Amino acid sequence: MMTRKRKLLSNAKVCDQLNCVPEQLQHRTTHLEGGHRDEGKDQEGIRSQYFPINDENRARLRFDFFNQPCVDLAKAFIGKVLVRRHSNGTELRGRVVETEAYLGGEDKASHSAGGKRTERNVAMFMKPGTIYVYPIYGIYLCMNVSSQGEGAAVLLRSLEPLNGQDTMRRLRAARRREGARVLKDKELCNGPSKLCQALDVQRCFDRRDLGTDTEVWLERDPSGSTGEVVSAPRIGVESHGEWATKPLRFYLLGHPCVSIMDRQAESKQGLAAKLEGQPATILHSS
């Protein structure tokens, strides 16, 4: 039986500790690329086309969903819908198409390897469903969610944008050089830091409860369909010995929003042939 995890800190306390700037002040709307609709007209997500507002609680996934072993949770995330209620009123929605599992103390590629617990990674030791947000390269963020197991968490790598693409595109443009080309829908969330930019995931989201938070949560996919899931080695962990080759990355076969396809893994699992003659995945437009 797993050791009891720390109690969740209040959101207000965490934001104070991290000197989090209020979301309304962080939202950037200048130097936008492309001739897209202005913020006043980008209201496609105020009420989701997928779930009437009264159905939010029924569709939302809570503690029971997150309370499972790390690998199981990483696979279960595939096909679920991550929702971010933005400060402009838009519900930014994306279907999870790629994840990675980090198993805690035994996993040499994990931030909690060897049971190491720090102020930065404490969310990994909190109750299942706790959000763990950490910076990479000093300027980008990655979003993880804790699971069962001491120090275990799932990295959310890629989403298929479903709703609010205009707002996502503006948020991504604010972090890119002026005059850069307009991003296609499939490029908005096809990587962990891109996902955080597109959904305006902030550092102060760290240690929040994905099962109860009012600004970000997870829902069942109303379509109820996913597809074949590929198991492959994780990205960027090549220096961690045997853990570099363990198949702890999971992604939806043939999906254009996956960050990196692993043809060798697909072939080993007998999935490559299933792509032949398969129709292209249709991305939802805003």
Automatic annotation (TrEMBL):
<dbReference type="GO" id="GO:0006284">
    <property type="term" value="P:base-excision repair"/>
</dbReference>
<dbReference type="InterPro" id="IPR011034">
    <property type="entry name" value="Formyl_transferase-like_C_sf"/>
</dbReference>
<dbReference type="InterPro" id="IPR003180">
    <property type="entry name" value="MPG"/>
</dbReference>
<keyword id="KW-0234">DNA repair</keyword>
<protein>
    <recommendedName>
        <fullName>DNA-3-methyladenine glycosylase</fullName>
        <ecNumber>3.2.2.21</ecNumber>
    </recommendedName>
</protein>
<keyword id="KW-0227">DNA damage</keyword>
<dbReference type="GO" id="GO:0003905">
    <property type="term" value="F:alkylbase DNA N-glycosylase activity"/>
</dbReference>
<comment type="function">
    <text>Hydrolysis of the deoxyribose N-glycosidic bond to excise 3-methyladenine, and 7-methylguanine from the damaged DNA polymer formed by alkylation lesions.</text>
</comment>
<dbReference type="GO" id="GO:0003677">
    <property type="term" value="F:DNA binding"/>
</dbReference>
<keyword id="KW-0378">Hydrolase</keyword>
<comment type="similarity">
    <text>Belongs to the DNA glycosylase MPG family.</text>
</comment>
<comment type="subunit">
    <text>Binds MBD1. Binds SSBP1.</text>
</comment>
<dbReference type="InterPro" id="IPR036995">
    <property type="entry name" value="MPG_sf"/>
</dbReference>
<dbReference type="Pfam" id="PF02245">
    <property type="entry name" value="Pur_DNA_glyco"/>
</dbReference>
